[in-house]
Amino acid sequence: MKTSLPQLLVLLAVLAAGPASAQEATPREVSEPRILRTVIEDDQVRIEELKVRGQTQRIVVRPKSGAPEYEVVPADSGRDIATGRPGSRGNVGQRLWHVLSF
Question: What DSSP element (H or E) covers 49?
Answer without folding.
Answer: strand 45-52
